[in-house]
Design goal:
It contains ten helices and eleven strands. With 363 residues, the protein is an alpha+beta fold. It has two domains: 9-82 and 106-130; 140-306 and 338-361. It has a seven-stranded mixed β-barrel. A four-stranded antiparallel β-sheet has the order 9-8-10-11. The N and C termini lie far apart (53 Å). This is Spore coat protein. It comes from Viridibacillus arvi. Keywords: Capsid protein, Virion.
Length: 363
């Protein structure tokens, strides 16, 4: 197939023994010195495997830190996601672009073709890191950033298996600290100790509630099962003094789970779940706000009409390179079916949520 909108190529060079070491010792977190060459520049980098279950796959995902120069396109770190379990290779990007379209901060992403020591490893998704430079590139106020690093990040005092957490902030890692920030602790205390009347009154002084509800719509529409208690970051905006939320790792979406298996369109309820969401939707004014936001999205961005040209554009940009991907070259037929699979999911999911909307608003 003729190349259309040529995909950028990344060439990484490192000692072969170091490459074998990080690929064979998958649970090590050591970084290896390497070189990265793109169409625009050459850089010295540090590279390591990234992800949890991702490390077990043949096609690895990588975390890159730029050394010399310190930045590439305004970024100090990037992630190269293998998208191993996603037969479309597009769900992550489709999700992040969807979040952006409904007013939620999300990482920029672009597909690239990765070569390591002159061997093609296939199509990867380059993801922007959510850090202080992410904020700076968007001219956003500085602020502390927390990562939800495991499923204990459920906004509760208890783990998902109902055990009391050892500390209030279990499940979170502070990625970037701005002025000894303790906003996360304040949020968790409010969620778990404030009585209903005080919570309904005070939460808007801690959390950017409209942006959280829009994020919730993004998770519910794309149906990311882990998205409610994992796969997100929190940003404490130093100007508004409110916490905002952003998505992360959305390959298990749009009708498939994180293993790439089909997921029924009605698997996630319209209200989603987690302790913070439950407390917000228990408040009439926030539930009404959520319903109004959701109704608009179901009529605009989360429709076949809106998403079809975006899906087709992504498909057409990736398709010429499928034969170069060792993980995908024998699965081209499945890849070719994925645009219609995703569109059928959107239609079914949209109809399901429309059918539940009145019950949510009038609860």
């Amino acid at each position: 197939m003729e190349e259309v909108n040529k995909m950028e190529k990344y060439y990484i060079e490192m000692p072969e023994n170091e490459l074998l070491r990080i690929q064979n010792n998958i649970w090590e977190h050591d970084y290896v010195d390497a070189k990265l060459k793109t169409a625009k520049q050459k850089l010295s980098i540090k590279i390591a495997l990234r992800g949890n279950q991702l490390r077990k796959h043949k096609k690895k995902s990588y975390h890159i830190i730029f050394d010399k120069p310190y930045f590439m396109d305004g970024q100090h770190e990037i992630h190269l996601n293998a998208e191993y379990n996603d037969p479309s290779l597009m769900r992550n990007k489709l999700s992040f672009d969807f979040f952006e379209s409904i007013g939620v901060l999300a990482p920029q992403s672009v597909h690239i073709l990765l070569y390591i020591n002159d061997v093609c490893h296939g199509v990867y998704l380059q993801l922007e890191s959510f850090d202080q430079y992410f904020l700076g590139n968007r001219k956003l106020p500085d602020g502390t950033i927390y990562y939800a690093t495991n499923d204990d990040a459920n906004f509760s005092l208890y783990t998902p298996d109902h055990k009391l957490k050892l500390t209030l902030e279990d499940g979170y890692t502070k990625k970037y600290d701005y002025q000894n920030d303790s906003s996360l602790k304040r949020l968790l205390i409010a969620i778990n100790t404030f009585p209903k009347e005080k919570f309904d009154e005070e939460i808007s002084t801690i959390l950017d509630v409209p942006k959280y509800l829009k994020w919730l719509i993004g998770v519910v529409c794309t149906q990311n099962f882990d998205g409610f208690i994992h796969n997100y970051a929190l940003y404490h905006n130093s100007k508004s003094e409110l916490i905002e939320i952003t998505p992360w790792d959305y390959d298990g979406t749009w009708g498939r789970d994180l293993h790439g298996r089909p997921l029924e369109h009605n698997y996630i309820p319209i209200e989603g779940y987690n302790t913070l969401t439950a407390r917000l939707l228990d408040c009439g004014k926030f539930r009404l706000m959520y319903g109004e936001f959701l109704q608009e999205v179901l009529q605009t961005q989360f429709t076949e009409q809106y998403q079809k040209p975006l899906i087709e554009k992504l498909y057409n940009s990736i398709r010429p390179y499928i034969h170069k991907d060792p993980n995908m070259k024998d699965n081209a037929a499945t890849f070719d079916d994925e645009p219609q699979y995703i569109l059928r999911f959107i239609q079914a999911r949209n109809m399901y949520m429309e059918s539940k909307l009145n019950g949510l608003i009038n609860k």
